Amino acid sequence: MTKKEVMGAIKYMQKYQTETDKIEAKTAEKGCPQKCYDTISAFANKDGGIIIFGINENNNFKEQDVYNVNDLQKQITSLCTTSLEPKIRPEFLALTYNGKKLLAVKINELPQKKKPCYYKNVGIHKGSYIRIGDSDEHMTDYEIYNLQSYTDDIKEDLRPIKRAEFEDLNQDKIQQYLEKIKDKKPNLSKFSDEKILKLNGIIENSTGKIHPTLAGMMVFGEYPQGYLPQLFIACVVVPGRKLGDVGELGQRFDDNERVEGTIEEMLDKSLAFVRRNIGTMVIIDDDGKRTDIPHYPMKALREAIANALIHRDYSINTEGSYIYLRIFDDRIEILNPGGLYGNNRIENLGTDNILDVRNNTIIRLLEETTDIVENRHTGIATMRDEMKKMNLPEPEFENLRGTFKVTFRKEKSDETVKNFTGNCTDNFTENCTDREIKVLELLKVNPSITQLELANELKTSRRTISTVLSKLKEKGKIERVGSDRKGSWKIL
Asked: Does domain 233-280+290-356+370-409 have CATH number 3.30.565.60?
């Protein structure tokens, strides 16, 4: 921590009249503030931060002398070493700013395995905080559990499903797996089938009765949701750009499906849902050859959905939560229970940094039985590359409180639209008015575009657009494929 860094933080607060997720202002004119353990805990549990004593938030963040720099430093040190668990080692910097004596205290982020930092007087569940924006919020029970499970190396995917029996696993797949694993790992051949399955985390028999593990159920289960009903994907198509928008007929969703099965089955079914709902661009080259291109790269979406299924939190704390796949007019969102695990950070995704893995057994079993994780460690890079190929914005990643969210946006650059549209040939536009030509070009870019969207794009009425489309159909330029509500336009 340097004087320049602290002065920059003060100027920021005074300019924008706000604190941040890493800067806190506190007055200490008459003594050490009675409550600052919450901010110390919050900074230690997230990304660290600086507390500047001698800045009055309620007076436009103006400077005012602290009562006694030396005593204030002793009080903060005592709080950090005797009242907080684990102990915090703050850094101090006394300075004079605009003639006022201030004290800056830097709190470093704790190592992941030492979190959470909490105020001992009220205990871990009431005394653990996390920094959200410019406020210190109590950590939820799940956030505390998530930290502790990492510290204690709890493997939730090895948890036995005690209501289930061995017969609830697909026996044909189990036999295929045993044959394959014995061939690949000959040292296992000397063991019984039961022991092989136990060693590989598919079953658990410590009580004398065989139960599938969660990993075994999610990879080999006949019907996992019979015992784990909330481990599904909720797929919806929203007729608008935000939840709550309704369609022309008052519908909340244009399509809605509960996707169930094993991880492999849910991946395939959810991708089929996406394909039928995102529409395609019809590209016709100079030779008249037609190519249909989805509005989003399917490889990128496959990686995102696979990641959600593989890396979600499968603990009992999130057993009632499902993966959410939402298709809006302008974007696709994929949300899975459980934030980033362990030391993982947003900025490290898609880099060469080694990432902590939550569900090691699930990943290993999928590696041995499917091609779902063939791009392991390169999935994020694949998403970015595939979006870039279509001149679409990079996918957005958000580590929310207990949820990880990926967003794919549909907006294209002007160059993309130009590339996909091209120039209509004379034959293509023969006997067409200027307005009809503009509609044809928009249909080529987006065959699923609605009449309302066409009207807004061309700044005309929906009735006019309806008339133009009817004329184009009469002239044999276009035809409607599918229903009025879910279909698309085909260029002839």
From this structure: yes
Query: How do residues 130-176 score in pLDDT, each as one tens digit?
Result: 998 889 999 999 899 989 888 888 899 999 999 999 999 999 999 99
Q: Which of 409, 405, 381 is nearest to 393 (CA)?
A: 409
CA 51 to chain centre: 31
Our separate counts of H helices and E strands in the chain read 17, 22
Superfamily of domain 3-139 in the CATH hierarchy = Schlafen, AAA domain (3.30.950.30)
Q: What is the DSSP string of 181-200?
A: HHHH-GGGGGS-HHHHHHHT
The pTM of the full predicted model, rounded to 2 decimals, is 0.75
Cβ-based neighbour number of residue 102 at 10 Å: 24
Cα–Cα distance measured from residue 158 to residue 491, given in angstroms and rounded to the nearest whole number:
53
CB atoms under 10 Å from CB of 253, counted, come to 17
Tens-digit pLDDT profile for residues 316-344: 888 789 999 999 999 999 999 988 888 88
**Helices marked H in 68-222:** 69-78, 124-127, 141-151, 171-184, 193-199, 214-220
Q: Are 366 and 359 in contact (CB under 8 A)?
A: no
Rounded to whole angstroms, the Cα distance separating 415 from 260 reads: 40
Range 423-491 classified under CATH 1.10.10.10: yes
